[in-house]
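We read letters as residues; the fold follows as tokens. Both lines appear below.
***
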Amino acid sequence: MNSAIDSFNFKIDTGFVNFTEAGTKYLVNEKGTFDTVTGEISESEFKREAYQIKENGISSRILVRNIQSGFGEEAHKSEVLQILINSKMLRQKYLLGINKETIRDIYNYLMSLGLFHIYFEDFINRSTCTDIDFKTDKNCLSPDKAKGFFKYLSLQGGELTEKKDNLGLQFSYRQKENKYISKPFVKFYHKGLELMNSSTEFYKEYLKGSEVSDICRLEATIKNNSHLKATFKSLKIRYTSSSLGNLLELSQNNIEDLITLLLSKHIDINNTKRDQLMDKISNNNLSRNQKALVMAMKYYLTTVNGTFEGFLNMFTEDIKSRATIFRTKKELKELYTAYLSKDTEVVQRQEFRDILREFCGLNRGDIAISQVA
């Protein structure tokens, strides 16, 4: 399994950048505007304003813009070079991701564009990074197995995608600016299918012949500096800054733990309670009350042809206490997801649990989920 940085938004003060004639023409003379409140720019604005270079399936977006931090006498304006850096810039080394060993390849690729020059030490230490995507890959899930795995996880939530050329499970959205700590953007997807169907040009140019058909990926996003600080604090990782150099100091174990923490905001990674319910339903070992609830639920959904939401509302409409309504709905939802999963074989459920634990690095023996859940 390989864990690394997949992409990030890179910024560096233009005082550390020497622009070429082409860079002056396409970047400096086409300078973007600044946000006087935060100094940030939305993803859609950046894509709209940035200078873009496309070659062999690699997309580079670059922008020079002014930013302002602070107000009044404390206001500080600066000019920055902003680059959306992604691991496709590694070409044949793409699957390794961005780490200490591959960062020189990223640097060389950017310098080869002929738009600017930055000293390598400044590139590493004078930068700030936001919108950082961390990834971990597992190379043993065929599309069929990945489909079952994603469906198993989706019973706890998320948005499931099941297409011939695209399989995945997504939690939250990149655009939810104010929810990045409580509901961070996390997604599972079948990387092999994505490469061969959506990144065909890149795959044929740089990865053809590589074994990618069973690669599944888990990605999680750190939105900004405050999100990075909070995450490091939770994981007891010493925070110094959001420079590229400091991000590269993260070990594979650190990255696995970080991804696990963000995923645990959406699902119970151990799945213990739900799986115990599934086992009880499969073995007809529920309590009398639980059996009655499952029978009533089954009747309403099949004979009456109602929806689960309708069943919840019908079952709780005469309850006065909001706390009791909440507890009852929670219990019913747990029974419902367990009932839907009852046909998943016990052996397969255990296999899916093991796959999830391996994705999250929980088989290493040096971390317990209670540390990050």
Summary: The chain has two domains: 2-263, 272-342. The longest helix spans residues 322-340. The CA atoms of residues 108 and 120 lie 9 Å apart.
